[in-house]
Design a protein that fits this description.
flat; mainly alpha; single chain
């Protein structure tokens, strides 16, 4: 399997999990264990997706690194 296809499949899988976590948190009772757990899972998957982008071969890698740091700070502030 070539690296691009592997990257693409991992990206799709993480995106699917993030989508399920998003809707689970949205439907669950606010503040309940399911809501909180799904919200944390969503934030973790978003962080992983952004990390994949940062590790990619992009011309604006510094911009992506800055955005990742902002996202990680947001996640830390939420937990």
């Amino acid at each position: 399997m070539n690296p691009y296809l592997a990257f693409k499949l991992v990206h799709i899988a993480l995106g699917c999990v993030a989508l399920v976590a998003f809707w689970t948190a949205g439907i669950a009772r606010k503040g309940g264990p399911l809501h909180v757990g799904a919200g944390k899972e969503l934030l973790d998957r978003i962080r992983q997706l952004v990390q994949e982008i940062v590790e990619g071969d992009f011309d604006q890698i510094e911009l992506y690194s800055d955005k990742l740091a902002e996202l990680e700070q947001f996640i830390a502030d939420q937990t």
